[in-house]
Structures are given as C-alpha cells and as structure tokens.
C-alpha cells in the first residue's frame, strides 16, 4: 500500500528546505528544455522556409518532351544486320516537336483525377529582352496565371502588381526582378521582347516577379499562355510543359511513372528532382536533436548529483523512516517524486522560456533580397515540440532520479542507527 | 497462561565481515504482555544486535521470531515494514527526529504511513501523546530547535502514535543527563502501568535496569541470566 499524500509531503518538505539545490536542478532542466524548444522551432522554421523556397517552385509532377536521341537507331531495326556489332557515330537527337502531343486532352484527363489538386499548362520559350541596343537573353513562360496562383505560392513571389492584373491585360508581363533592375523598369513601363525567329513585341509590365533565387530572377518572366503562343506563332494547343500538383505529395513518384507510360512523355516527380534537398533537412533536424539531447543529458547529470548529495545528507532520515515503518519502496518513491517534481517544474518553465524566445525570434526583423515574402525570422511553432519537450524533461529526470533513489531504497537502517 | 508478545527461538547470528564472528549463540527468550524488560551486558555482548533482530530491521539470522504469536522470520521487507509500523515502537540513543519537520509532524508521520485513521484523528492523538509526556507546548516547533531531553520525549511520542504492541529502546537514556534519564524511565514505567504496554530496553545503566521488572543479562552472545 502506498500512501501518496505522506510521500509527497516528505518530498515537498525536502525540496522546500533545500531551495537552492532545487532551484539549481530545476534551472538545469529549464535551460535544456528551453533551448530545445527554441532550437527546434527556429531550425524547423528555417528548414520549412528553405524547403518552400525550392519546393514551391517545383511542381509535384512535371510533364514535358525530352529532346534526346532515339533509344533504337535505324540500323537496329534493319533485319539483315540483326545480331551484328553496329557502331553509329554522330548520333543526333530525334526529330520531334517540343510541344506535348495531345496536351489539351491530357490536361482534361488530369483535372478529372481525384488525386490531382490542379494541373496547369505552360509554354516556355527563349526570348531576348530589348533595352535600347542591348539584348538580354531570357525565358518567357506562358501560364494560366489564376490557376497557377491557386495551386502554388505564385502570388507570394509577385512583389509588386498582382496575378489579376496579368489576367486582365492580354499583353501584360510579370518581369523578373533582376531584369527589372538591370533595365531600370518598373510596373507600368513597357518592355520589348524579341523571339529567336526575330519578331518584336511590346509588352506592358503589370508586376515584378521575384523568386529569391537570383539566377531565375535574372532571366525569367511570365505572361499569359495565349500571348506567348501568339508571340511564338504557335496554335492554341501548343503547350510544352504541364505542371501537376497533387493532394498528397507522397503519391508523386508512382503517378509520374504511370503518366510516363500512359502518355509516352517524360514525367519527373518532386522527390527525384529534390532528393538532395531532403537530405539537407534531415541533417539539420539531426543536429537540432543532438544538441537538445546533449543539453538534457547535462541537466540530467545535475539532477543525479544533487539527489545523490541529498541522499547522503538524509541518511539518518532514511534510517528513521525505515525504522518507523516506511518500506524501501516508500523511500525510493520519496526521492523519485522529488526528481519528477524537479522535472515537471523545470520542464514547464523551459516550455515557457522556449515559447517566449520563439515569439521573440519570430518578431526579429529579417530582410533579405533573396526572400521577398519574409520580413521576420521564420519560426515553426508546433504543439508537438512542446509535448516532446515535457516528455524529454520527465524522462531525463526519471532516469537521473532512479539511480540515487534505488540506493536510498537499499540503505540498511541498522548500520546507520548503530553508526557502523 | 500469559500471552507472549515477543518470542525468540534459537536465534543465531554471524558477522561475516571482516572475519566470521559468532555474535549471537542460540538465543531463546520471551517477553510477556505488560512486562518491562531490560537487556544488559558489556559492550560487544551482542545486546544491540539482538534488539535489531527483534525489531525486524535486521533479517540476517537463523532461528525464529514470533510477534503476537505470529511468525515474523522470513517475511518480505514490505510486510516487515508494515509490522514495524503497526506493532513496534522504537526509541534510539540519538533521538533521530526529522529535523526539517515540526515536532507534531514527526509524531504524526508513522500514523499517516499506517493510514488507519484520518489525518484529524492522527493529529488529535499526536497532541494527546505530547500532552501526556508534558511537551504539548512544543508541537509547532521545528524538531531541530528543541533540547536533547525534549527530543527524546518526542521520539517516545512518535513510537507510541500507532499504539504499538511493544516499545523497544536502544540505550534511550544513554545520551541524556540524569534528570532527563530519570524522566524517561518514569514515562516508561507509567506507560507500562497505565496502558499495559510491553517494553524491551537495552541499557548499560544498572540503576535504570534495577527499577524494571526483569533483567536479561548477556555475555559473549549468550543469555546468562534472565
């Protein structure tokens, strides 16, 4: 039978009379947990931001026609030379069109798929931006701008102007931020573009696009799909790329393989395209947890030390308790509950400090050219981390308390009382 | 036939460290209900060792020990703790109070552990015991702030809180001046006469022993007179 109120009362008295040690031990846990919460929130916030930076611009599945040589050269099809050792020099890419064959039916098909959140057609062409006598090479992508804004963070990257402005103006263009700076152009100005075949078209700047990646912002601009089709002199069904966004990103690899087989085009999924990116996130998470666990182990040793000293100090008390009818288990529970109380108090304070620091960091201004949508340091506050934090705190204090309390349990009262 | 509260049968004990030493040799004796017995002997005669076996704290012996007619030998530590709590009151040479607690809390602690009464009842009983020992006014004081004689009386009150079958003392007056020693002896005698409590006390003090019902004399691990 365990009489909790007596045990907790003794534990409380010990803790209160040894206020200094209690505070020291609790602070160890507090700092450990506080640092964990702050670190994990900040680190995962940064990870999330970096992931978004890349991943939001990468569709879950990207469909396009690859320019590549035929896997089967004509000589292999010639029956008389079958089984012979054929050597073909100067292999050229297969003569085919860049556009996706039957792009509009494919789009319809994708939009009806329940797994698909959205599919947008794109036409990517090479152009020159003309600024006086200077020609800047670049890309112009024709998009269905409203659909693009719906399924990706496209809107976040338009630093001035809006997607609606592009939709409303047929001859509008969202100019890359780097280009706008180079050519000293702003919203409302006109820019002339010329295609590789030579035609010159004036377009009105309705917005500035800034992805945060300088290499992209220096060449990339967006216009309406049919405008780009007109500029390049192609028909309404001329589409070079289809970007697919799924409801569940995990289905991307399987679906990409299926689409590749079904339509005979190239389909890359996000996991293949960004495999190295995942690795980076994982390693950063690993570092966060390694640092936090180290801090908690240090705090655990602090508790272990303090409880050990307390038990040496309380030898006589332990002997008395045992002589008057407290069992070894009761004595162990007294010291265990002290450890757990320290863990709880220190842990909760740590959560509060971690939360406070996270909020503080979240307020700090963080302006960078590369990230137009970010104004403060990114912090990822998740309830999950707080649960993990308190579980960590209790676990480490439990382990730190168990060993000394087990010693207290085994103390032989006769030896203490007789003074041998 | 008189009822035995404590009965020891053929108890033997060896100290194994540093060398094998036969401390207790075939000890058999009984304590009757309401008897005030003292154990006397020179240092090293094994009297304290015997007391700790009888108090159930030391379980490393051979032979049998009965308390209130029930066999105690071989019971688990958990059960022995319970038996100590309920049936045995213990007073040591050094008063051994929990110094961070008040006098009242010290006295109440074994009662709370037993959990047979409500907290209010235990507190009332504890105050009653303190009153009986003429130290009621100390109840709220910290245990570390009272004198040696007072501490010993508090320890007696603590030993009595669960109304034990037997009260054991290991040189309870050994650390007290003659005035306080006399006081403790009178308390013990009164407990025996008024409440019929059985007492078993180990002492060096011949004057003390001669005023009790019975002297058990030990020498070299044997009872030579009882």
UniProtKB/TrEMBL annotation, chain A:
Q: How is this protein annotated for GO cellular component?
A: plasma membrane protein complex
Transmembrane residue ranges? 21-43, 286-312, 333-361, 383-403
Transmembrane found in the keyword field: yes
Q: What processes does the entry annotate via GO biological process terms? A: lipoprotein localization to outer membrane
- Protein family according to the UniProt entry: Belongs to the ABC-4 integral membrane protein family. LolC/E subfamily.
Residues of the ABC3 transporter permease C-terminal domain: 290-413
Chief location of this protein within or outside the cell: membrane
Q: Where in the cell is it found?
A: Cell membrane
Can you give the residue ranges of the MacB-like periplasmic core domain?
Answer: 22-261
Q: What is this protein called?
A: FtsX-like permease family protein
- Classify the protein's membrane topology as the record does: Multi-pass membrane protein
**Keywords of this protein's UniProt record, alphabetized?**
Cell membrane, Membrane, Transmembrane, Transmembrane helix
Q: What organism does the UniProt record list as the source?
A: Muriicola jejuensis
Mention any Pfam family matching this sequence. FtsX
């Amino acid at each position: 039978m365990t009489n909790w109120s007596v045990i907790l009362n003794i534990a409380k008295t010990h803790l209160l009379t040894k206020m200094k040690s209690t505070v020291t031990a609790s602070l160890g846990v507090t700092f450990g947990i506080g640092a964990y919460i702050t670190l994990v929130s900040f680190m995962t916030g940064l990870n999330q931001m970096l992931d978004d930076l890349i991943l939001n611009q990468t569709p879950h599945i990207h469909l396009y026609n690859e320019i590549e040589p035929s896997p089967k050269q004509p000589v292999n099809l010639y029956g008389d030379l079958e089984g012979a050792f054929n050597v073909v020099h100067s292999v050229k890419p297969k003569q085919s069109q860049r556009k996706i064959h039957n792009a509009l039916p494919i789009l319809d098909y994708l939009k009806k798929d329940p797994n698909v959140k959205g599919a947008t057609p794109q036409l990517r062409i090479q152009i020159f931006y003309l600024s006086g006598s200077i020609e800047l090479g670049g890309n112009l992508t024709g998009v269905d701008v409203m659909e693009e804004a719906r399924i990706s963070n496209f809107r976040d990257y338009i630093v001035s102007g809006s997607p609606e402005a592009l939709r409303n103006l047929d001859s509008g263009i969202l100019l890359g931020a780097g280009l706008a700076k180079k050519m000293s152009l702003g919203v409302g100005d006109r820019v002339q573009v010329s295609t590789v075949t030579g035609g010159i078209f004036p377009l009105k700047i309705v917005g500035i696009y800034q992805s945060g990646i300088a290499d992209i912002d220096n060449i990339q601009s967006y216009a309406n799909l049919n405008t780009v089709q007109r500029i390049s002199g192609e028909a309404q069904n001329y589409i070079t790329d289809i970007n697919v966004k799924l409801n569940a990103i995990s289905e991307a690899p399987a679906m990409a393989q299926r689409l590749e087989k079904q339509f005979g085009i190239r389909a890359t999924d996000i996991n293949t395209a960004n495999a190295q990116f995942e690795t980076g996130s994982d390693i950063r998470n690993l570092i966060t947890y390694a640092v936090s666990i180290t801090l908690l182990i240090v705090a655990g040793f602090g508790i272990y030390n303090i409880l050990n000293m307390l038990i040496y100090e309380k030898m006589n008390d332990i002997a008395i308790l045992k002589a008057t009818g407290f069992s070894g288990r009761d004595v162990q529970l007294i010291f265990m509950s002290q450890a757990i109380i320290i863990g709880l108090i220190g842990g909760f304070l740590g959560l509060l400090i971690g939360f406070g620091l996270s909020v503080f960091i979240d307020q700090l201004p963080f302006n960078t050219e590369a990230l137009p949508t970010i104004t403060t340091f990114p912090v990822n506050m998740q309830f999950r981390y707080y649960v993990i934090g308190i579980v960590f705190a209790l676990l480490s204090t439990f382990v730190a308390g168990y060993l000394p309390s087990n010693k207290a349990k085994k103390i032989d009262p006769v030896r203490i009382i007789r003074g041998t | 036939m008189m009822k035995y509260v404590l009965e020891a049968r053929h108890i033997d004990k060896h100290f194994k460290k540093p060398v094998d030493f036969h401390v207790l040799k075939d000890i058999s004796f009984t304590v009757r209900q309401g008897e005030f017995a003292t154990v006397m002997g020179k240092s090293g005669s094994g009297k304290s060792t015997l007391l700790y076996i009888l108090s159930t704290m030391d379980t490393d012996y051979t032979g049998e020990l009965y308390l209130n007619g029930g066999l105690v030998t071989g019971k688990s530590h958990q059960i022995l703790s319970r038996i100590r709590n309920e049936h045995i009151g213990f007073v040591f040479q050094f008063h051994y109070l929990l110094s961070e607690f008040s006098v009242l809390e010290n006295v109440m602690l074994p009662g709370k552990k037993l959990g047979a009464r409500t907290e209010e009842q235990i507190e009332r009983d504890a105050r009653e015991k303190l009153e009986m020992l003429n130290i009621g006014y100390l109840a709220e004081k910290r245990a570390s702030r009272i004198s040696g004689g007072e501490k010993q009386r508090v320890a007696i009150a603590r030993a009595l809180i669960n109304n034990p079958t037997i009260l054991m003392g290991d040189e309870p007056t050994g650390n007290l001046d003659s005035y306080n020693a006399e006081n403790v002896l009178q308390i013990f005698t009164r407990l025996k006469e008024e409440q019929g409590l059985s007492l078993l006390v180990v002492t060096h003090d011949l004057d003390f022993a001669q005023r009790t019902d019975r002297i058990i004399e030990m020498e070299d691990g044997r009872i030579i007179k009882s």
